[in-house]
Amino acid sequence: MTRAPDRPSELIEGIRAGDRRSLARAITLAESTRADHRDLADEILEAVLPATGGATRVGISGPPGVGKSTFIEAFGIHVIEEGHRLAVLAVDPSSRRSGGSILGDKTRMTELSHRPEAFIRPSPGGGHLGGVARRTREAMLLCEAAGFDVVLVETIGVGQSEVAVADMVDLFALLVAPGGGDELQGIKRGIMELADLVIVNKADGDLAAAAGRTRADYASAVHLLRPKWRGWATEVLAVSALAGAGIDEVWAAIERFCAALGADGELVEARAAQATAWLWSEVGDTLLDRFREDPGVAEALPAVEAEVAAGRLAPTRAARRLLDVFSRPR
Ligand code: GDP
Predict the structure, then answer these.
(1) Of 307 and 182, which is predicted with more confidence?
(2) C-alpha of residue 325 to centroid of ligand 1, in Å
(3) CATH number at residue 27
(4) Do 211 and 238 touch, CB atoms closer than 8 A?
(5) What is the distance between the alpha carbons of residues 216 and 48, in angstroms, rounded to a whole number?
(6) pLDDT (tens digit, 9 = 90+) per residue, 247-277?
(7) Which of the listed residues 51, 68, 91 is the one where a domain comes to its end?
(8) Can you tell me which atom of ligand 1 is nearest the CA of 64?
């Protein structure tokens, strides 16, 4: 398929006017690995940056089957009915474009995906977590510039992706299922410490009583954790995403969170720290890209790797040797 060349000025104007096609195209450019696309994306991002930062950024995680897409559908509709515009993004390093992303897949949120006030974008395909997270951060800023004032970033409850998501949002919510007893469903302490909100889903029918117990278990568990904020203690809520019960309470909690920490409070500090951390990970990623593209490094790499794999060369020494090649003036 051929397409007209991208004019950044048109895309910028489109994004500012809330045009979803321009937004989608700009995100595609930001996700591209082509240097000319990245340059365009950088130009667009820079131009729209003053229009970003106005959204409430919410991260949501939970193991597969806990009801994330059902919850996002119900939550999204509620938030839209409260008068907001919602963007749903995903961080899932395991997803592959070709195979269709599991996360953020439009078929999962049928009603929401048909609402003009919602914008749903699957996880950028493949790659390492750092790259996926970086592109999701950019997509988030582009969505904000396009007037989406609530951005939801979803991730599945495995690996380090929760940490990456918690590092780009204001509030991090953990979705859990009833049951699991005192082991709290094997959710790692580190992940629990990230949660500003624990949402026990499926509090309906036969599961209602178990959901109540699970809620109490989590409430005492979060009590023991190191507090993340001065002005907010992690709350535990029970909802039924399927029945739409308790969804309003989740949104109310998010609003209370923003009121307690927002405007000129802790959230400002947190966002500044996030931006600085992003800068450094950007420096790291870019350096690594340049390192891998360096012809001298590329030439020396196979032999050095083989030596390291065979145990004949210490990895530290090998790394220094490659870095010397990289920084040698040409
Ligand atoms: P995801 O994998 O986390 O996105 O989970 P889904 O949203 O696809 O839901 C997994 C299953 O749990 C589906 O069969 C849903 O119908 C069911 N489910 C989701 N939310 C609820 C709920 O609130 N109550 C009950 N009983 N089932 C639910």
Answers:
(1) 307
(2) 53
(3) 1.20.5.170
(4) yes
(5) 44
(6) 999 999 999 999 999 877 899 999 999 999 9
(7) 51
(8) 2
